[in-house]
């Protein structure tokens, strides 16, 4: 468990937390706190896509509270760490928004309290899936 400080980008903070603790695979069941703004990706129907959807980016301005978040810490082929997070927010009007959080877009307001659970003997990888046409989660035996 850790607390990310004001101004820290949420995904950068998760990456730094994993790196500081030597974590290469983990799941993130809970984040409580808030951010000043964020960009999320949601699915948009598309007849041109092989899977029927494409990513649509939505920019949120805040402050916005984090209602829930779940994700994972993945190790890429080059050994670098990449967090992947799906998140729900509530804005100052009480409207909820959720989707895949874009890196570098969500600076913490006051705090973000994180629970990160390391997973041993498993590799949480990410890579491009040609059938779907996007980067996906690829778990494997560690």
List keywords for this structure.
142 residues; mainly beta; 60s Ribosomal Protein L30, Chain: A; six-stranded antiparallel β-sheet; two-stranded antiparallel sheet; 8 strands
What is the tally of helical segments?
1
Structural class label: mainly beta
Shape: flat
Query: Secondary-structure element order, as H and E?
Result: EHEEEEEEE
Uncertain residue segments: none
Q: What level of helicity do the residues show?
A: under 10%
Gyration radius, to the nearest Å? 15 Å
CATH-defined superfamily? Hypothetical protein, similar to alpha- acetolactate decarboxylase, domain 2
* CATH fold name: 60s Ribosomal Protein L30, Chain: A
Strand content: over 45%
The strand count comes to 8
Largest β sheet strand count, sense and barrel closure:
6 strands, antiparallel
